[in-house]
Amino acid sequence: MKFTQTIILFLIFPIIFSQTFDAVLDNLKTLEGYIAEYKKEKEASDSLNHLILAFIRLGKYDSFQWTIAAGTVPSDLYDYVKNKDETHGTNTLMCRKYGDIVLPTKKKIDFVHLFAVMNGMDYLPLASALVGWGGDLAQLAQDLKNNFPSLTDLNQLIIEARKFLGIKGQFGEGDLNADIDAPIILKRKKTGITFSDTIRTFYSNGDHKYKIKEFVNIVFPDLKDKTKIREYLEANYSDQAFIQILECKYGLRTGSFKCYLPGDIVPEFANHRKAAIYAFADFLGENI
Question: Which pTM does this prediction carry?
């Protein structure tokens, strides 16, 4: 009996998660409709893309720093959507609360983080690294610093970084997939096509299999020599002023005025930072 039950669960397991994915996107599509109605009724000056991306992002990422990097939405939009939910018996506000959802590929993605990254990239391209891969790399370096404060060997730190990257810690699977997929989905999204339909198509037609290469082509278009991806990524990452501030807040750099004037890398954590960068570079290099 137990064996039979196990077989049945094995067979329906993909269906369950497929329905969950579809339900999330169906809910998102309803939300997109409500926000489109809001924009038309209120004659809102913000683009529809921004209203949708920022509204979802603000459910989790609403700090002052995020407001600078990704903007905000009109103050009455929340109540407008809430009233729509109450009137129609929907729960589109849940789109602001989704955590990791399981994709048809069986991988996990942090739903709100996906929209936050797209929001930042769309709103302030200058800070696009901060809201996505760069900010998460700083968090990975922080994880290494906190878990291995006395470890200085770069090769061993890289090994430890790969145990965290896309697996656990602050740069886990959901965040990694959100960072990789966000620029692709944002670029593929066409005027008049919803985010929900774009996302559904991306994960259903097999194109996701080549997403690492597409991510690199979009985010690092001037990377010519793939054999030097470590050096390229380190230079690209290190050149980001916003990330330097974040590194200072994480104790990886010196700084003053609450780290708004970041200083040099703290010597004992230089390899922790480098290991995080190299681990991500190696991950990309292995998949392009």
Answer: 0.91
Give mean pLDDT, residues 104-121.
Answer: 96
| Cα 150 to Cα 2: distance, rounded to the nearest angstrom | 49
The Cα 200–Cα 205 span in angstroms is: 9
**What digits encode the pLDDT tens for the residues 135-177?**
999 999 999 999 999 999 999 999 999 999 999 999 999 999 9
Q: Hey, CA dihedral for 240, 229, 217, 182, is it positive or negative?
A: negative
Q: Where in the chain are the domains? A: 2-286
Output phi, psi for 118, to 5 deg.
Answer: -60, -40
Backbone angles phi, psi at 261, to 5 degrees: -120, 80
